[in-house]
Amino acid sequence: MEKIAFEVATVSNGLERLEVLNTESVYGILLDLEMPIMDGLAMLNRLRQKSEAVLVIVLTTDPTRSTIG
Q1: Within a 10 A sphere around the Cβ of 48, how many other Cβ atoms?
Q2: CB contact at 8 A, 59 and 33
Q3: What pLDDT, on a 0 to 100 scale, did the predictor assign at position 52?
Q4: I need a labelling partner for 4 at 20 to 30 A (CA). Which of 26, 28, 29, 52 fits?
Q5: In this predicted structure, what is the pLDDT of residue 54?
Q6: Chain segment 19-44, per-residue pLDDT in tens
C-alpha cells in the first residue's frame, strides 16, 4: 500500500491564509467560520473570486449560526 504524506500549515485568520495562497499551492483547506479579522465565509468568497480550485471543508462550533443547513 502506498502512503501519502501531507504538509499541514496553520494560520490564525482568513486574511493570513489568503496571503499564504499567493505564494504556495494547497490541496485542501479546513476552514473555521469563526476566525478573527476575516471570517470563514469572507475568506471562502475571496478564495472563489480568485477561481481557486481547492477542496474546502467548512466547520463551526456555533450551533446557532444561520449558515448551517
Answers
A1: 12
A2: yes
A3: 66
A4: 52
A5: 82
A6: 877 787 778 888 888 888 888 888 88
* Distance in angstroms (rounded) separating the CA atoms of residues 50 and 41: 14
User: Cβ(14)–Cβ(42) under 8 Å?
Assistant: yes
Residue with cell 470563514: 40
Distance CA 69, CA 9 (A): 29
Strand residue runs (E) in the chain = 28-32, 55-59
* pLDDT at 36 (0 to 100): 82
Distance CA 44, CA 31 (A): 8
